[in-house]
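cron nightly-structures :: item 1 of 1
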Amino acid sequence: MSSSFGYRATVTLLFIVIGLPPALCSLYSTPEILAELHGYSRESRFYAVLAGVLCLFGFAIFAVFLTMLIRAWRGEPR
């Protein structure tokens, strides 16, 4: 085993533990948020926009860890 294997394993584990849960939660709640935006009350729209911002934050976390994963597995061994 080389140090590149340890790096790749660490990045893969971080992706699974930290990167996937926010993305899956965001993906699951996006249709509900879009349906709530068509609500009649002002409060429901406010909470839908707030949840939408949090979903975008979850997708950003996923994108960062996905980029790290791709670079770790595509790059040459260290």
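cron nightly-structures :: done
The CA atoms of residues 32 and 66 lie 25 Å apart.
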